[in-house]
Amino acid sequence: MKFEGIYTPAITPLQENGNIDFAAFAEVLEYLIDAKVHGIVIGGSTGEYYAHSLSERIELIKKAKDVISGKLPLVVGTGSIRTEESVELAKAAKAVGADAVLIGTPPYALPDEEENARHALAVDRAADLPVMLYNYPGRMNMTMGEHFFRTVTAHSKNFVAIKESSGSTMQLHLLACRFPDIQLSCGWDDMALEFFAWGATSWVCAGSNFLPQEHIALYEACVLEKDFDKGRRIMQAMMPLMDFLEAAGKFVQSIKYGCRLAGLATGGVRLPLLPLNEQQQEELAQIIKTLKHETSLITGQA
């Protein structure tokens, strides 16, 4: 499988009582399909997987497959603190005919590279689908390193891509130079330009939930048009959003509020998270407005 373009880690809307709003979830997916993103990831951290039960996650997998129905690649997140639960999610992804699975490091357990590789291989055996690895040491406190990559790729041909979210240029260089057969996907938003310069052909970006055209514009400028001058200008317009998402400390809440501004029903967030306050909402709304205007001038869509 070739990962190309913008892959959106979809949000999970909630009802007022906190239950998952499956109708609104379907509308989110339809919105992304209509916006012409290139793929959809469900069950990622942007989708609040950590706050969902296993049965809820399996139901979301089924619903996503019904809605997407081959219109776009569907990537299913398998992240869990327990390998056994990740295996069950992998089986569910295989059962519905998902296109790929996302495999990350189990949180809290702090596995070493050999242990982490065994986890990934167990999930891979259950799915037998193309795998996009997910390296996010900021959340998991462990990094996928050279031993890990050599181990998993020696045992399975399914490990074809990685969402690299360490924020480390050294890690980016390691992957680009020593593991060119693992497709690079940007997972650290404010380094998107650097990833594309080093050969990444996809970007898993939460902001594309509500700014799909702007994220697609950066991908097209850098990957399709090879116009990095244009890409830098688009990236500069995006930087205030990137800074807000990280500095506010309310990433999922910000993504959901952005989706509300785009006209989507989102509901709130599950505890322990709390929504943005009024000042944060106003600041984010202004950032989005300015970003859209500046990007439209760069792309000629004004």
DSSP strand tally: 8
Order of helices and strands: EHEHEHEHEHHEHEHEHHHH
The major β-sheet equals: 8 strands, parallel, barrel
The span between the termini is 36 Å
Shape: globular
Helix count equals 12
Task: Summarize model confidence as the mean pLDDT.
Answer: 97
Radius of gyration, whole Å? 18 Å
Helix content: 40-55%
**Strand order of the main beta sheet, please?**
1-2-3-4-5-6-7-8
Explain what this protein looks like in three dimensions.
This protein is α/β, with parallel strands linked by helices and 302 residues long. It contains 12 helices and 8 strands. It has helices spanning 22-34, 54-68, 83-96, 113-127, 137-140, 146-155, 169-178, 192-197, 212-224, 228-247, 251-261, 278-299, and strands at 5-9, 39-42, 74-77, 100-104, 131-135, 159-164, 183-186, 202-204. The protein has an 8-stranded parallel β-barrel, surrounded by 6 helices. Helix 8 links the parallel strand 7 and strand 8 (202-204). Helix 3 packs parallel to helix 4 (113-127). The longest helix is centred in the C-terminal third of the chain and has 22 residues, at 278-299. The mean pLDDT is 97.
